[in-house]
Amino acid sequence: MARKKHVDYIKAIGITLVILGHINYANDVIKEWIYAFHMPLFYFATGVVIKRENIDYNYFIKKFQGLIVPYFIWGFIYAGCSFGSAVRIGYGSYHSISRAGSLTSLWFLPTMFIGVVLCQLVFKASQKVWIIAIMAVGAIGVSVSAPKIDIGYPWCADVSLLAAGFILFGHLFERIANKIMNTRGWVLLCIIGVALTFTYRLNSITANSYVLMANMRIGNPIVFLISAFGGCLMVYSVSRILEWLPVDKRLLSFVGTNTLVIFAVQKPIIHVFGKCFEVISMYWLIELIVAGVGTLTCACVLSFLIDRFAPCLAGRSATAYTKLSTREKGH
Predict the structure, then answer these.
(1) Nearest to 187 by CA among 243, 255, 247
(2) Distance of alpha carbon 277 from alpha carbon 43, whole angstroms
(3) CA 109, CA 99: separation in Å to the nearest integer?
(4) Fewest C-beta atoms under 10 Å: which of 75, 85, 258, 297?
(5) 257-298 per-position pLDDT tens digit
(6) CA atoms of 10 and 76, how far apart (whole Å)
(7) Phi, psi of 212, deg, nearest 5
(8) CA–CA gap between residue 235 and residue 16 (Å, rounded)
(9) Whole-angstrom Cα distance, residue 97 to residue 71?
(10) 116 vs 64: CA distance, rounded Å
């Protein structure tokens, strides 16, 4: 099956938004907007490419190697190896990862693992669109109605259900949209998506005024879902438009295929830029652009080196890296 290049573009745009959202010293104006949809976007993108697979030993090993092994490795890199950090990282909630002193962004990996496994169970039950849609709505409903606990659920289980819902809807959207959309349709859908993202202004999330999906701080669930799906539609449409543009998109493809490592290394790089701006202050937008471009560039270099010399940190084996490199050259 041919690689869906537009998914790489979705993920490249998504990880760029993640970086911009984490530049806390320069982005108060757009942080709330980015956080309204940037994490659901990654689950949605996974749904675009997910297909039914046998849930057997090989499947679990592949997903465990791709998501959970990097989770623990990066978790210990940031937190250090101790009994306390092992217990907290093993619990896997946003709060326990934070208390371990590790990279809090790592919560995303176990939720993706649980999410894709749940989706395979749905696919095993039925491939009918209406049943998948009902299961997606059900997963989201259970997630947003689950009682909150201070330390969070193990492996962010409540967030994992929400993730599964977005994955399933991404799967359904890809199945349906390809049959009915054309280039003009993507432009119109992009405009609609942009408009829907700004419904985030209707959401009230306490004093911390932005969505934090990691601990289910989503405010009004209906407003959250509208703005989140709006962002998914916006970025998806942009990615389909990019497919038609006669420009070199190899950099986008590289970023899109290396989001895990970029995701894992970007926060310390952002912090370094922040220290620099304490010495040389600039207008906030200039700081945002410089830190954003600089962080993405440095993260791409580190990603290239890690892929070549320590692919396990990217959830890949050496063989998988060789195949990926060959495929990218083929583009």
Answers:
(1) 243
(2) 33
(3) 18
(4) 297
(5) 999 999 999 999 999 999 999 999 889 999 999 999 999 999
(6) 29
(7) -130, 90
(8) 12
(9) 11
(10) 11
Q: What is the pLDDT of residue 322?
A: 46
Longest dimension (CA), the chain: 59
The whole-angstrom separation of Cα 293 and Cα 125 is 45
Q: Which helix (H) or strand (E) holds 153?
A: none
Helix (H), strand (E) at residue 53: none
CA dihedral 86, 92, 95, 101 (to 10 degrees): 40
Rounded distance, CA 15 to CA 329, Å?
A: 22
Judged by phi (left if over 0) then psi (alpha if -120 to 50, else beta), residue 216 lies in left
- Please state, in angstroms and rounded to a whole number, the distance separating the CA atoms of residues 106 and 263: 8
Residue found by looking up tokens 């994992």 in the block: 160
pLDDT tens readout for residues 162-193? 999 999 999 999 988 877 777 678 889 999 99
Residue 71 corresponds to which tokens in the numbers above? 């989770």
Residue 58, burial from CB neighbour count under 10 angstroms (0-12, 13-18, 19+): exposed
Residue type, 109: L
Check: CB of residue 4 under 8 Å from CB of residue 18.
Answer: no
Q: pTM for the whole thing?
A: 0.93
Phi, psi of 25, rounded to the nearest 5 degrees = -85, 0
Residue 39 corresponds to which tokens in the numbers above?
A: 């994490």
Residue among 141, 136, 223, 139 at smallest CA distance from 175: 136
Dihedral angle of Cα 261, 267, 272, 276, to the nearest 10 degrees: 130
The CA distance from 275 to 98, in Å, is 22
Q: Are 119 and 47 in contact (CB under 8 A)?
A: yes
41 contacts 230 by C-beta, under 8 angstroms: no
C-alpha distances in Å from residue 63, one per residue of 120, 189, 198, 263, 284: 12, 33, 35, 18, 40
